[in-house]
Specification:
This protein folds into 2 domains: 6-54 and 162-228 and 368-409, FAD/NAD(P)-binding domain, CATH 3.50.50; 98-154 and 233-359, D-Amino Acid Oxidase, Chain A, domain 2 (2-Layer Sandwich). 32% of the residues lie in helices and 28% in strands. The protein is built from 11 helices and 22 strands. Strands 7, 8, 9, 15, 16, 17, 18, 19 and 20 form a 9-stranded mixed sheet that branches. Helix 1 (24-36) runs parallel beside helix 5, helix 1 (24-36) packs across helix 11 (391-409) and helix 9 (315-326) crosses helix 10.
């Protein structure tokens, strides 16, 4: 354990700010704190042996433009700002990235009003958008078919794991891997003490909870009721065996009733094309396949009333997602709406991801970022896509709140 750096009222501090979670949001927070307040001691605890092992490292790698998000929402503000900052950060540190643009394609007439609404939303958010007809779609993507589309010029791709590693290297924080938090003792007059599975105790003045899939558990360990639960949804991906079928990024028109973008096609920085994800309930917080079942975690999900409200409200949508999960033929048909040339043989299974979806008691799927403050604690309780894109401004916002708590206590 590093030397004690603070002693106040008989309580020994190992750091000023203790961050739980070594994904891109936790590491961005540590990075922002040390830049905004040099000399602030930050410790990051990550249960895995390295950074970005879950949501950060298991997604499409897309730098989102912000076109989907309600103007004025945290998602819209952070995504638009974060996309530009992410491109600049990658360029500055030599991290693989590319600004490719993307197509959002309507394949059914009932999707056209939603597509036109996205055009308006994009313009309100200050995003470059170009409307396309069928012939113009083929100029961008010769194998893609649709009634109409929009081209979003500011979308790109990058290596988010590389970004997370660079944030860790340059933050100046004490980052401890293999440090799973099992107990939190908060004393508002003194500070926060955290015990890890190894038996180490780390004491800080302020706790920042960026635990992603386990953020609600950490909040309750701290003594705070977050009034939501994480319900994990697995997103399953395929790799396209014929990547030459797709030049860039191709998305369907999303259904505004769900916080998922639908199965899309993404040419990554390695030249491969990812196809997916769908969205099916995971049977564990880190349930990356159907074989991974953790009864305690599954029981907690089923015990949350919001889970049953979701099931009753969206069972038709869920049944379709389950069918596509269990049937490659059904998944292929979903892809063929955009890419008619694709066959079952073109889809090669690829690693899945799990989304940490915050769900309220009444079954509401929390759509925006959710950050709550409590005595000596800041909890990031919902950081869905575009969290990786927006991680730099999100990190600054969380850092601002944590540093404000430190100021109130006196430095």
């Amino acid at each position: 354990m590093r030397e004690v750096v603070r002693v106040r009222s008989g309580f020994a501090y190992d750091c000023d700010v203790l961050v739980i979670g070594g994904g891109i949001v936790g590491l961005s927070t540590a990075y922002a704190i040390t830049r905004a307040a040099p000399g602030t001691r930050v410790t990051v605890l990550e249960k895995e042996p390295g950074p970005a092992r879950h949501q950060t490292g298991r997604n499409s790698g897309v730098i989102h433009s912000g076109i989907y998000y309600r103007p004025g929402s945290l998602k819209a503000r952070y995504a638009v700002r974060g996309a530009a900052e992410m491109v600049k950060f990658c360029a500055e540190y030599g991290i693989d990235h590319a600004v490719t643009g993307k197509l959002i394609v309507a394949t059914e007439r009932e999707e056209l009003p939603r597509l036109h609404a996205l055009v308006q939303r994009g313009r309100e958010n200050g995003i470059p958008v170009r409307e396309l007809g069928p012939a113009q779609i083929m100029e961008y993507e010769p194998e893609v078919r649709g009634l109409a589309a929009i081209h979003v010029g500011s979308t790109g791709v990058c290596d988010f794991v590389g970004v997370a590693r660079r944030l860790a290297e340059t933050s100046g924080a004490d980052i401890r891997y293999g440090a799973q938090v099992v107990q939190v003792d908060r004393r508002p007059a003194l500070g926060v003490a955290v015990r890890t599975a190894r038996g180490d105790v780390v004491r800080g003045r302020v706790l920042v909870n960026c635990a992603g899939l386990r953020c609600d558990e950490i909040a309750r360990m701290t003594g705070d009721e977050p009034d939501m639960r994480i319900v994990p949804f697995r997103g399953e991906y395929y790799e396209l065996a014929r990547p030459e079928l797709v030049r860039g990024l191709v998305y369907p028109v999303p259904d505004p009733a769900f916080p998922f973008l639908g199965v899309h096609l993404t040419r990554g920085i390695d030249g491969g094309v990812h196809v997916g994800p769908n969205a099916v309930p995971a049977l564990a917080r880190e349930g990356y396949d159907w074989r991974t079942v953790r009864p305690r975690e599954l029981g907690a999900t089923l015990a949350w009333p919001g889970s049953w409200h979701i099931a009753r409200r969206h069972w038709r949508y869920g049944a379709g997602e389950l069918h596509r999960s269990l049937s490659r033929a059904a998944f292929t048909e979903a892809v063929r709406r955009l890419l008619p040339a694709v066959t079952q043989e073109d889809l090669v299974p690829a690693p899945a991801g799990v989304r940490a979806q915050a769900v309220l008691r009444d079954g509401t799927l929390v759509d925006d970022f959710l950050i709550k403050e409590a005595p000596r604690a800041v909890h990031v309780l919902n950081a869905p896509s575009p969290a990786a894109t927006a991680s730099l401004p999100i990190g600054r916002e969380v850092a601002r709140r944590a540093l404000g708590m430190l100021e109130l206590q006196g430095t």
